[in-house]
Design a protein that fits this description.
Layout: H1 8-18, E1 23-24, H2 27-30, E2 48-49, H3 54-67, E3 71-74, E4 93-96, E5 103-107, E6 112-116, H4 121-129, E7 133-134, H5 147-152, H6 160-163, E8 170-176, E9 182-185, H7 198-202, E10 211-218, E11 220-221, E12 225-233, H8 236-250, E13 254-261, H9 262-271, E14 285-293, H10 297-313, E15 319-322, H11 326-337, E16 349-350, E17 353-355, H12 361-375, E18 380-386, E19 391-397, H13 408-412, H14 415-428, H15 444-450, H16 453-466
Helix pairs in contact: 1-3, 8-10, 12-14
């Protein structure tokens, strides 16, 4: 690639593919697409293209392959690790799927929905609900995140416990390769044992192997009974015991089991309109319990009542409330889903998206808290997440006083230092440094430290096989020696 960047005549050729009305070149228009949500990465780009069809995406990639032009795919720009952000000074062209937002087909008999890669998650929910079906991926960003990005990061969300992450929620894909070739893998089969599963290569690849332009998604029957409760507890150990009790009692009806600390509840009540603590007094820890049943509302009600009664009898629950309406159910979930954004007004927050075996969550939390507070006295640890699948968002808000490091920029400059404390602990407990956010730029170099040489070699071989020109979302996930990626 010419280090001076694409020439004006080449940019004109790219623009001609999508039409002048679907191109951004003005710096003010490009600005929102050059930075990720937490401000950790800010890149540069001469152009953003908005193709309206798979054929246009293919034409862009064919030209990019022929000219060695790097392309960064972008959907909702809600990623947390810089996977959707162009490089600084890299002259990467951004390819946005925002125009490719159609719901192509909904088949309630086969329980599948076919959507464009740029379809907004909330619109997929509505399309499923219109035929009395459920698409269970639930994220705080569902009003803006898009299916292609959800698949490219193998998104999880709050319902993984019952339904799995995006890898489990997808049957088939349509993908444009870096060469401009189109792979039509939009198969609707639940059983198809015919060779290598190409679909799984692209899910979780963060746009480094190709661009997901369409997907066949699994749908499920809408629950007949639904109950949501919040309980206050004394410890993470009690939360784990309550989860075990809930799993035994509810089985597959247990669709969510979230863990929240007192400080997270305080932040959320303080900074989120309309949110209040639903329990009478403060508690060290809170669990949000979601139960969905397919037979009757009475079954769900009986399950939640029995669970809470046994939790009280066993000394696990100190206080609890059951939502008595759909509005109250949404309010309880809103508290959990607002917790991440509620940290922003509290200053800098160093974040981790780790997972450990569910049974190890309390021990990991204790070890991580001790190590972090030794390094940063006064740090405010706001660790919350999906206890049911072991995914904890181990976030650490900066201390509150000047002598304890209240300078936000100075605090955030310690991001890598704190990662180097938390991530090895997660690995030592048999866990992962990325549960649902991906690798992107943020964890690329770390990935090479925690994966075996053979694993990294296989990843690089796959990358080079699919993207020999090195143009597909360069600098993300894996580094290719000598390729400048």
């Amino acid at each position: 690639m010419d280090i001076s960047g694409p020439k004006p005549e080449l940019l004109d050729r790219f623009a001609a593919i999508v039409g002048a009305n679907h191109v951004l070149t003005d710096p003010k228009d490009l600005a929102p697409h050059l930075v990720e949500g937490r401000g950790l990465y800010k890149g540069s780009s001469p152009m953003l293209l908005k193709p309206g069809s798979t054929a246009e995406v293919a034409a862009i990639m064919k030209l990019a392959s022929e000219t060695g032009t790097p392309i960064v795919p972008q959907t909702g720009n809600t990623g947390m690790v810089g996977g959707q952000t162009p490089r600084t000074g890299g002259h990467d062209i951004i390819l946005s799927l925002e125009r490719m937002n159609r719901i192509r087909d909904v088949d309630p008999v086969a329980n599948v929905l076919v959507a464009d890669g740029g379809a907004i998650l909330a619109d997929v929910h509505k399309a499923a609900e219109a035929v009395n079906r459920l698409f269970p991926l639930s994220l705080g960003s569902e009003g803006s995140c898009r299916i292609g990005g959800n698949l490219s990061t193998n998104a999880g969300g709050t319902a993984v416990l019952a339904y799995g992450n995006m890898r489990q929620l997808c049957l088939g894909l349509e993908v444009v390769l870096p060469t401009g070739e189109i792979w039509d893998g939009l198969r609707r089969l639940k059983k198809d044992n015919t060779g290598y599963d190409l679909r799984d290569l692209f899910i979780g690849a963060e746009g480094t192997l190709g661009i997901i332009t369409g997907a066949v998604l699994k749908l499920f029957p809408q629950p007949v009974g639904h109950q949501v409760a919040m309980a206050g507890l004394n410890s993470t150990e009690d939360a784990l015991k309550l989860f075990e009790l809930a799993s035994n009692l509810c089985g597959t009806a247990l669709t969510g089991f979230e863990l929240m600390p007192r400080i997270g509840v305080e932040f959320t009540v303080r900074h989120t309109d309309g949110v209040r603590d639903p329990l009478e007094g403060p508690h060290a820890w809170y669990t949000l319990i979601d139960i969905s049943t397919s037979d009757s509302a009475e079954t769900a009600e009986a399950m939640i009542q029995s669970l809470l009664e046994q939790g009280f009898e066993n000394g696990l629950i100190q206080d609890a409330v059951i939502a008595s309406s759909l509005q109250q159910q949404r309010a309880l979930w809103n508290m959990r889903e607002s917790m991440s954004d509620a940290q922003k007004p509290e200053g800098g927050s160093i974040k981790h998206d780790i997972s450990v075996p569910v049974s190890k969550v309390p021990a990991f939390m204790a070890a991580a808290d001790k190590a972090v507070l030794e390094a940063i006295p006064g740090a405010r640890i706001c660790a919350f997440g999906h206890l049911g699948d072991g995914n904890i968002h181990y976030n650490i808000s900066q201390p509150v006083t000047a002598d304890m490091g209240a300078d936000k920029a100075a605090y955030l400059a310690r991001w890598r230092e704190v990662n180097a404390i938390v991530h090895p602990l997660a690995i030592s407990f048999g866990g992962s440094i990325s549960a649902e956010h991906g690798i992107g730029q943020l964890k690329r170099d770390e990935l090479a430290d925690i994966r075996t040489p053979i694993e990294m070699d296989l990843m690089r071989r796959i990358k080079q096989a699919f993207d020999p020109a090195g143009i597909m979302n360069p600098g993300k996930v894996v580094a290719i020696p000598g390729a400048g990626l």
